[in-house]
Amino acid sequence: MKVAILDIKGKDTGRKVELSEEVFGIEPNEHAIYLDVKQYLAHQRQGTHKAKERAEIAGSTRKIKKQKGTGTARAGSIKSPVFRGGGRIFGPRPKDYSQKLNKNVKRLARKSALSSKAKDKALIVVEDFNFDIPKTKSFVEVLSALGVGNKKSLVVLGDTNNSVYLSSRNFKGAEVVKSSELSTYEILNANSVVVLESAVAGIESNLSK
């Protein structure tokens, strides 16, 4: 699969890059995508939620009224869950929500997501670029020239590029990641995937194993 390489002005450079059919041209496996996205979202949960139960509430331990003769139900503690301010019955406790997923399934999910974007013409390859100084305006201008300035975008770098990364931090419409950090969720969450030329080889190397 050959894709034209654009420059930062959005114009065709006249060069093309050969994208591996094994990575960018497979039939998307929806179940693999579902499992990988499910794991990603589960890992975003901190699991620190906690409610105090009866034994953890601060309060008097004396019997609040006599056992018989009141005409009401028996009550032995003000910390009982039936009273306001009492403990909570079966309240949430800290929990680890992480899930395990086979590496091959994760790899298949990412290939499926990339193939889906390539099939929908939502994958753009751009020649490598840099900024003299980190500047959000320069980053937005590049995305606008590529026709994705008003869309949610994912920019994939071949290697660490601080000027591009720092330029993107104040712009909520785009995420910048290295090819080695790609996730299925980020690919699918973006309307357009902008891949720098140097990142293509890294993506194919990581996903062809």
From TrEMBL:
Write out the transmembrane intervals: none
Q: Name one GO molecular function term.
A: rRNA binding
Q: One short Pfam family name for this protein?
A: Ribosomal_L4
Q: Which Gene3D superfamilies match?
A: 3.40.1370.10
One GO cellular component from the entry?
ribosome
GO terms in the biological process aspect are: translation
The free-text function statement in the UniProt record for this protein reads: Forms part of the polypeptide exit tunnel.
The protein's name in its UniProt record: Large ribosomal subunit protein uL4
Tell me what organism the protein belongs to.
Croceitalea dokdonensis DOKDO 023
Lineage runs: Bacteria, Pseudomonadati, Bacteroidota, Flavobacteriia, Flavobacteriales
Q: Which gene encodes it?
A: rplD
